[in-house]
Specification:
By secondary structure, this protein is mostly helical. The chain contains 5 helices and no strands.
Amino acid sequence: FAIAANAGRDALRRRKARPEAVAPAEPPDIGAEPAWPDPPAARAIEDALDVLPPEQREAVVLHKLHGFSFPEIGAALGVSPAAAKVRAHRGYAKLKALLSPLEESP
C-alpha cells in the first residue's frame, strides 16, 4: 500500500508540474454513453479534491473510491487507523463546504 501511495503522490506532483498538452478533440461517438452522468458535477468534485491537503485527499480517495478500511489506510499511509479516520473526516468536511454551491444550483 505504501508503494502505491508513494507512486500516486509522485504522479500528482508530475501532473501539476507539467501540464499535459491538450489533444485535438475527436468527434463524439453518438452511441457512446458518457463516463459520468453529470460531467460538470464530476469536474467540480475533481477540482474540490485538488484543493484538499494531500493527507486528506489520500484518505478520502482510498476510503470512498477504493473502499479501503481505516486500518488499511493507516497501514498504507504509515499512521494509526484513528489518524486515517480523522484525515478522511476532515477531508469530507472540506469537500462538503467546497461542494455546497452544487446543492443550491437548480
